[in-house]
Each structure stands twice: as C-alpha cells, then as structure tokens.
Amino acid sequence: MLAEKVKEPIKVLAVFDKGSVRPVSFEWRNQKFSDFKIGSSWVGSEGSSRVLFFAILFDGDAYEICFRVRRMTWHLTRIISL
Length: 82
What we know:
Layout: E1 2-9, E2 11-17, E3 20-28, E4 31-33, E5 37-46, E6 49-58, E7 61-68, E8 73-81
C-alpha cells in the first residue's frame, strides 16, 4: 500500500440533504471521478472550523477528499494505492 499526499483543490458535485453532505463526483487534474463507493467518512477540525472527510474507493485506489465547511471548499488530500 502506497500513500501520496496531494493537498490540491478539486471540483465536487455533492448532494446536501437534511444536514448531511455526500459527494457524487469530483474532478481533479481534468479527470472526472464518478460511480465510486464512499468507504468511510468522518469529521475533523482545523481550529474551530469543521472539516468533513470522505474516503472514496475508485478503480482500486482510495482518494481522501475533504470539505472545509466554513470556507465551502473541497480538496483532495491523499491517494492510497490499494
């Protein structure tokens, strides 16, 4: 298993429903990722700001993406080759 830190902004299509958020697809470096499985999700923080994390399973790899609630921004934080 090989992990690569990325920390790059991404474009995300997400569903916001009844106080929850779920990414549906995302774009990184002109490549679109969809039809993936969300392996897990968790809540973290940066100071007093909430950060929502998602482990996306796609094509044999795991992509860790995060949503910074206060800034309303999405980032790809890590890629893990499984």
